[in-house]
Backbone:
């Protein structure tokens, strides 16, 4: 029988409202449906398969909104020049990165407000065993999709660097998917440009997606020599800042995520789930 699968989205910089991931999620479902139809699976079976995929969102930017809003009010009261438009896009990114570093602080004494908030939200996700979990005992499978600074937060959390904020070891992360990640800047600045890390036992794989013109994202593979990161380089926009934001709008990225979801559901690859045999294949 197919497992249940929680899709956990973690956003990047700037304030994000509820359902920020809804459009990308719908594109992912559409791409998944198309791929399953190409296997000649009936629509009713596809519906049953995709109903096992449940979307969850992690919100953390509310912890930084008041500071970035006050900065914006003081810095850009009336200016409408082109340079200020670009700066107003960049400034929240820089501020939230610095806020996160400050918040995480020293390994033992940092306040960890953001990480603790993420920890609480993810713990709640896995307590929701009666919401969208169709197979008893299969409620702890997940794919994490994290963008920009959210990828740094997801990395810190999934790799369990902090004793007070640690992913439950019984949770099975089928794939950690990072998009537009500046993570090498963080690990290098912390003194580890050449990381010896290996994937935690409960993380099956790491997939990184990087847009060619993204002025913020960096390639991850050279920095994690002991982790077989699957890295996809593609195009989202010719503009560096827009390129960084448009991961959420890309059909190509939705297709890549759909591949990982179907693999997590054991519907891709050489050892496809026997459920496909049981399904009435045309």
Residues:
């Amino acid at each position: 029988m197919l497992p249940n699968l929680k899709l956990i989205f973690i956003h990047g910089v700037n304030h994000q409202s509820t359902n920020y991931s809804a459009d990308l999620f719908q594109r992912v479902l559409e791409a998944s449906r198309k791929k399953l139809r190409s296997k000649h699976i009936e629509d009713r079976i596809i519906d049953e398969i995709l109903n096992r995929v449940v979307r969850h969102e992690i919100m953390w930017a509310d912890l930084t909104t008041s500071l970035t809003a006050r900065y914006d009010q003081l810095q850009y009261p009336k200016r409408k020049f082109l340079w200020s438009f670009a700066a107003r896009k960049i400034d929240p990114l820089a501020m939230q990165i610095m806020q996160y570093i400050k918040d995480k602080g020293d390994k033992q004494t940092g306040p960890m407000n953001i990480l603790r908030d993420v920890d609480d939200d993810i713990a709640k996700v896995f307590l929701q065993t009666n919401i969208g979990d169709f197979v008893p005992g299969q409620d702890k499978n997940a794919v994490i999709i994290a963008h920009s600074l959210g990828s740094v937060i997801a990395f810190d959390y999934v790799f369990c660097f902090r004793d007070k904020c640690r992913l439950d070891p019984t949770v099975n992360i089928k794939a950690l998917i990072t998009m537009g990640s500046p993570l090498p800047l963080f690990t290098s600045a912390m003194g580890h440009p050449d990381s010896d890390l290996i994937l935690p036992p409960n993380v099956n794989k790491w997939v990184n997606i990087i847009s060619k013109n993204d002025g913020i994202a960096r390639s991850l593979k050279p920095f994690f020599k002991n982790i077989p990161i699957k890295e996809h380089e593609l195009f989202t926009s010719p503009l560096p800042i827009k390129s960084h934001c448009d991961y959420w709008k890309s059909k190509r990225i939705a297709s890549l995520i759909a591949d990982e979801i179907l693999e997590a559901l054991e519907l891709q690859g050489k050892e496809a789930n026997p459920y496909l045999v049981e399904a009435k294949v045309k």
Q: What stands out?
A: The chain is about 40% helix and 15% strand.
